[in-house]
Amino acid sequence: MRVGWVNCYKRLLLQNYLQASNGQSGISFYIWLLLITLLCTLIGCSGGTHKDRKEYIVYMGDLPKGQVSASSLHANLLQEVIGSSASEYLQELQRVCMDGVVSVFPNGKKELFTTRSWDFIGFPMESNRATIESDIIVGMLDTGIWPESDSFSDEGFGPPPSKWKGSCQSSSNFTCNNKIIGAKYYRLDGRIDSPSPRDYAGHGASLLGLGAGTARGETPSARIAVYKICWGDGCFDADILAAFDDAIADGVDIISLSVGGFSALNYFEDSIAIGAFHSMKNGVLTSNAGGNRGPVNASIVNFSPWSLSVAASVIDRKFVTLLQLGNNQTYEGELPLNTFEMNGMVPLIYGGDAPNTSAGSDAEYARYCYEGSLNKSLVSGKIVLCDLLSDLGVGAMSAGALGTVMPNDVYTDVSFVFPLPISVLDSNSTSKVHEYINSTSTPTANIQKTREAKNELAPYVVWFSSRGPNPITTDILSPDIAAPGVNILAAWTEAYRSTRG
Hints:
Shape: elongated
Number of helices: 9
Number of strands: 24
């Protein structure tokens, strides 16, 4: 039996064009009557243009007992709105005690929170796997998935468990298998370039391979159901609610998402808290990241008592990248994850010495290596030293550089993937690199491939992980647990140059 509430993508779209009583035209209301069986109605209220339209979610709690027509119920509610200042009236619905309305809130936007783990925790490499493990279905609400990754091979898998009621939105560039048993995408307003569950951002597919090795999950036989809720411009509440609804109805056992708001919201004005509440009522645990707003106190954004809130901790592995200079000095940096091999010593130049004057750039601007600021004829085929950790090295790469050296005194305990070889050092070390460049007429350097090293200080909660306590119910401690969430090797989308070839 289907238990759901915001099935936005099996909705009844009812458009009413209303003429104002004073004869003015152009006042229209786009009314979405969702086929809701448990939760809410989404109403789009607009003035004369699409740009001015505002969308609201009216949360109506559980479905009333007995035979109920959702369309009729919501149409009656809307009748009370028509003829008034709709957007203002919607915000006051619960205050005037309209029957059945729990809360009203805008259709807001949330953001994404950007294998050694099991050894560190103490899980064995080899263990007896219970057959019931393959009956576990994990619902992942994120940016989608890259199904061709070896991490999602279905070799050795049987058919999906009989409890699975979901589906796969297959397309010319996407198919499911017996590991990825379901995949759907959500975008209520239809503004998408690639209508597919495929992950083009990399967050959802979750980097196999600085070299040979083994990546493993805690439950390798579990099935995956993918619900793509996030796009280049964010993750919208209506889509999040729709995905929660489908995940519950499809028969998942656990829902996982690393998505959250920009600040704390009341429980029933937060789509994730609402979704997790109804998941809990149906026996499905929601596990979500606490947030990346740390280290400020009470900065956690996912904290509902009925979900599992997880802080990000480090493991006893870190990634280091060595920069070797022509004077045999070496410097070690931890930020970049450099997957490139650089053969031999390469000429080294300071960005401030190579301004693109034809484009109006000068030494002061070029030293930051912004895109278009560097002279290609001077930078091409060289490693360029920059005075700012800017645009992930795109400016240097677009000028033809073979690599770049950048300063960093802010970001720690976290790695990023760049599209070219890069060494990120503290400002004291980059100053010494600059001194070396000025000390010789032929400065050279080599950026080595990233290698693994031991982090002797682990475990600890990383600086960016949001802190508690619960900002709404302050006597509840949050997050609930901490788990490895920094520098974890996993599958990655092949839509990026740095993960291809």
